[in-house]
């Protein structure tokens, strides 16, 4: 077996082995691949055993691959409907990832979404606010249903583009199936279920760009498609500026293509579309970079190479690109640095990897992995090209297409199902925060705050209280004491709630909600001294509010002198 294929086999075996032993590693160092500890055994081990059998039994894999039909476009239609059905069958129920709490049906309900998402681009607001509102008004569906239908369309388009990429880079059926698996699967499938955020749409543009770059490198075609994909990404999300090096690479590939396949004038015109997009949204991007992003997403610097941070980056990559270890095949190809495909994909991959390493989201990578789906797409496109070439060159190794396909698809579908299991997903997020490794205090505080709200909404008062307690331990905040007080009140424990509200007003005497909560607990407990204390704050902050008058009336009726 040639060295590249030995590497493919070894990388697949290591990936499978890591997924099996990751749950045995103390803590959550391997949170990108240790899903076995979070899934029911029946949802993990049979699929893992199928992958192990495909690797250990080449004759069986060869038989399966030989019986697969020769790839045709109707197969892409079937696969697109299958992936769309999967995304519909597993709706988002955990709301842990990124901004899913806001960016589902609730986002379209906002009258002025720009007040909550000042960084949103106009195309983002049009697609994920105006469009679902119009669909709901016209067809009588919910905003969330409108978003999920849009996600179905994205999943179908995603599958066709992945198929197009596979057909571009592969010459044999085995190479095509393997390349399709590498390109199509990843954790991003869990975002095609109504996550109304422009990065989801932009990621489709990135896959289109990857397919266009490979076609341009090989055949001198689709320069215009590359330009349009980058332009669409730019008007959708500001992070698309990281695609500009790929644009320059596309222009260089077009200019140096053989004369007989050189792009036509219309393609050059379409290739200039990013200039128009930058003219339209560039000033808005710059304002966002210098205001919102400078405060929220400051560059990470050399701390990106600290062990915990570097490991989080690796886990994010493995979550998004299940076959990421196969990217090492790049360096085993003879003259890889001279290949036109290498130029194209390096211009796409390297800026995305830089973003992953040096820009950190507010909520930590374990939650905000959705921000970095583009790096997974870029690496997966690279792997698709490399694996297709390796299998095409050695027909006897066609059997490896089956383990490649399984190694990509199985963890992706498992992750999709996991995000639909609210209890397990919330427990997993809490476990990752507990560690080890120990995460920064602000990440732990924000994470447990969010989990507390999720558990409180589910009615699990005990878990919500534990989450709020851990958030307060990480970074005491008066608002967290209010949240914990509200949770205790809902559980009927007014004595505990009184202590939390009292601590909140001690930390921030201007917090109106804390004074209200304190008065409510005093009323429920018949606690006159606490009501007197609460009224001091209420009279100062809400002198003419009906709530304050009701509290005064209660105090008058319950003072010993009054009785």
Automatic annotation (TrEMBL):
InterPro entries: TPR-like_helical_dom_sf, TPR_rpt. The keyword Transmembrane helix applies. SMART domains: TPR (SM00028). SUPFAM superfamilies: TPR-like (SSF48452). Keywords: Membrane, TPR repeat, Transmembrane, Transmembrane helix. The chain crosses the membrane at residues 47-66, 73-90, 149-166, 173-192, 198-216, 223-248, 317-336, 342-359, 371-391, 397-417. PROSITE patterns: TPR. TPR repeats lie at residues 478-511. This is Tetratricopeptide repeat protein. The lineage of its organism: Bacteria, Candidatus Eiseniibacteriota.
